[in-house]
Amino acid sequence: MSKPILIVGGIIIVGLGGFFLFQSSNQKPAVEETGEEMGEMMPPSPEATASQGEHVVVYSDGGYAPKEMTIKKGDKVTFRNESARETWPASAMHPSHTLYPGSSIQKCETEEMTRVFDACMGLMQGEEWSFEFQEVGTWNYHDHKHAEHWGTIIVE
Fold first, then answer.
1. Stretch (H or E) spanning 114
2. Residue 96: CA atoms inside 13 Å, Cβ hemisphere, count?
3. CA nearest to 50, candidates 24, 31, 26, 72
4. pTM over 0.70, yes/no
5. What mean pLDDT is predicted for residues 83-92?
6. pLDDT score, position 6
7. Looking at domain 47-155, what is its CATH homologous superfamily?
8. Among the residues of 26-153, which ranges form H helices?
């Protein structure tokens, strides 16, 4: 083989290697980092789109999502009903709603109603109810209308 052909072949190989190296360094981050899969964007979770200190729990026919959420003391959680049926978020345990300190179904329809972890009424589709967590701990809650649906708020 002649020397010029070897030189041209070497230049082509080095050029292609550089091209592929450059291409791989300019690729998008992995799926875990961006939430992309096969070129489609995954919809953000309600918690991911919430402002710092504000979080959203969505109720659907399948129950609450996210089922567990970790927040900071003083953060507000909004419970949004996206189901065709009524929901009533309240502190565990059913039916007394007394797990969260100071909460009780007995306090609904009293002056203390705004300070208890209890919506004190059913929420229809599209309605929301919010509660600001001031107590550190792990707080289970349930749907008073459908007690098999529950979730957990962890307050740090």
1. none
2. 6
3. 72
4. no
5. 95
6. 57
7. Cupredoxins -  blue copper proteins (2.60.40.420)
8. 31-34, 46-49
